[in-house]
TrEMBL record:
Major localization class: cytoplasm
Species the sequence originates in: Alistipes ihumii AP11
Cofactor(s) named in the record: Zn(2+)
Signal peptide location: none
Main EC class the enzyme belongs to: hydrolase
Record: residues binding Zn(2+): 109, 113, 119
Gene: ybeY
Known function: Single strand-specific metallo-endoribonuclease involved in late-stage 70S ribosome quality control and in maturation of the 3' terminus of the 16S rRNA.
Domain of life: Bacteria
Lineage of the species this protein comes from: Bacteria, Pseudomonadati, Bacteroidota, Bacteroidia, Bacteroidales
UniProt xrefs under InterPro entries: MetalPrtase_cat_dom_sf_prd, YbeY
NCBIfam families, alphabetized: rRNA maturation RNase YbeY (TIGR00043)
EC number, UniProt record: 3.1.-.-
Full protein name: Endoribonuclease YbeY
């Protein structure tokens, strides 16, 4: 299936959809999953805060919220990656990395959640970061 990209409550032109979609499919396949319907939705801080409040009962800003509709029995990932372009931009500035790099990290973070990885329990954040680094390296090696 396809990876779809859209905006919600923000104006953002995402370049590199084809490369990113292929990378998402390669990452899922490397983790033993097929890619089903995945939507990457770019939003404003305020839009993602409202989603965070409404669906997760959290009252704080975040860079990504992943809604997982994957089918573990069929090993197919599916879901919505709701990404705050504002927070990603702020995080990139704080970390001293290009916006595009931080955006790719957030996208692969959401994909890894769809592949079944968590980041809340002890050790999970470190594992998630290592996987993000591995797949970011794959992205930049295969797109340069």
């Amino acid at each position: 299936m396809s990876v779809n990209y859209c905006n919600q409550s923000c104006e953002f032109a995402f370049r590199g959809k084809r490369k990113t979609s292929a990378w998402i499919r390669r990452t899922a396949a490397a983790e033993g999953w097929e890619t089903g319907a995945v939507s990457v939705v770019f939003c404003s801080d305020e839009a993602l805060l409202e989603i965070n409040r409404r669906y997760l009962k959290h009252d704080y800003y975040t860079d990504i919220i992943t809604f997982d509709y994957s089918d573990p029995d069929k090993r197919t990932i599916a879901g919505d990656l709701m990404i705050s372009v504002d927070t990603v931009r702020d995080n990139a500035r704080e970390l001293g990395v290009p916006f595009e790099n931080e955006l790719q990290r957030v996208i692969i973070h959401g994909i890894l959640h769809l592949c079944g990885y968590g980041d809340k329990q002890p050790g999970e954040q470190q594992r998630m970061r290592k996987l993000e680094d591995r797949y970011l390296k794959l992205f930049y090696e295969q797109t340069n």
